[in-house]
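Before surveying the methods themselves, it helps to consider a single example record, giving the amino acid sequence and backbone structure tokens:
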Amino acid sequence: MTPVWILSDYYNNINCCISFNILQLLKKNLIFLKIHVFLFAVPNLSSRLRFQSSSSDMTPNPRLRRSRYIFASNMAANGAVCSSKTKLQDGRCVVKEVNGVRNIFSEQVEYSKLLETKDSNGVPPKKKPVRSKESFEEVPLYTAVMTYLGFYLLMFLGYFNQLFFTPKVAMEKNREGYVPLFDRFESFYLRYVYRRVRDCWNQPICSVPGAEIVLKDRITKDYGWTFEYTGTFTKCLNLGSYNYLGFAEADGPCADAAAEAIEMYGCAMCSTVQELGTHPLVVELERTTAKFLGTEDAIVFGMGFATNSLNLPSLVSPGCLVLSDEKNHASLILGLRLSGATIKVFRHNNMLSLEKLLRDAVIYGQPRTRRPWKKILIVVEGVFSMEGSIVHLPDIIRLKKKYKAYLYLDEAHSIGALGENGRGVLDYYGCDPNDVDILMGTFTKSFGSAGGYIAGSKRLIDHLRVNSHAACYASAMSPPIAQQIITSMKIIMGEDGTLEGKKRIIQLARNARYFRRRLKQIGVIIYGNDDSPVVPLLVYMFSKIGAVVRTLRTRNIATVGVGFPATPLMEGRIRFCISASHTKEQLDKALEVIEEISDTLGLRYSQLPRFKGEVVYGSDDESQ
């Protein structure tokens, strides 16, 4: 008799193969769509299955989260300005895209009219530049039904497996009278749901994460409980690393300079900055960073995650109000929770939602006492790492000036990757750096190194040097890491006497636009802005995440899958990261494979009209 836990894994393997045919049957039999009413009548599964670590006020209500598709300027709040594919009707923005069904966004048109009027000072706003499209297409109904059914079935088989079979993991013993050390559902989820696709993550590598990457092969003989190395290696096209400008190299000026820094200063300082950890390279890096960003001063830290989580408690405290975008990174969420400040979440990139919270905060003040807030801080990212969207910065700056709030901008994924000069989302929109109170970013993406920075006024940086937990207790940045950043940053600024930095910025922008437009032409659903190097491809079903990652790896393409709880339950995705080191031939190879598996695995979910002509590499034509 075949064990149940083997049958559950067998189901996981064949689910993605049969789901496409089932979806086609659901299209023809509309009566089955009544299941959708039942599924959405019960409480949302994601709210019941959320980890305890994500159960605070920072986690947005999943019932308020909705997908959308917008063709509009990304300067407008939530796609307020209608494009050539939209029109106004009875004062509403009508998008005629899907099978003749019209989606209406009346609030967007109302807000677009508001933007066209004079600002709070009575001065007409400057003309906003036109930027690329941003898309968030809705999930098809039959796909939502199958996603919920598939996840319920996985959970049922997991509980059945747990009931009758002992897991191959270490169990706590002699703990009578003790409460469980680990969260019960978290342990169950990792053992019986995540384990089935565990081979798609944590893959060991044996090379620098450049345009190509070498993976160390491994196999599992017990369905993901344990792994064995085969002693072989596979060279793959790398579409999963944050190497946006291609500075993750084993040779070249950056690697040579880092090697020289090791010979001069050693590998580490073995001390904090406030004790014996300050060395000339850290001082030079802080000055170079401030010059690059156009701010008065900057401070650097050895870890990007800690730059957010350990510095935000030094900036806000109980009695302060923080308005956080619902898609903000975990490091921001952790730092805000540690601060003790009151946190309210506004809908992703939605200026109406943000302005309502700002207006209520100014009018009503703190709960119960109605005293004014000590300070109000708006926290957003430049490029959102899971959505691929770009923050609507000019509109946020306008609101923060109107309501006298502070603005914290996390440019981890945008610094170096956006703007004509690689200076991030500020450069992308042409905004004044002085309009953002706190500029944060990391060196782990575009600079091919590690660590993070905070830049702003000299008064702000002096405050952080004394009060920051990262500056007081964390080890100072390693000399070779600092030198890698200095060299790459000077190349971007052109201080090396070449145009290499400019070429990389242009190459990245061309690669991102070309890759995104070709994916839309294939008919898959992708999220985000056309200028963003982060490209999420929606596969929805949990089993398809593993199927796509494994299939791509067999074709020598390495990428990353993302599912619940890192994303909403119905928005499982494959996240591609585009680099300036990629060539057009490499991207074409990947697109050819993606187009092939889109048919075999049923990934062509998009119901939008497709561009019929040839997508020209390097073209700025928005109609493609």
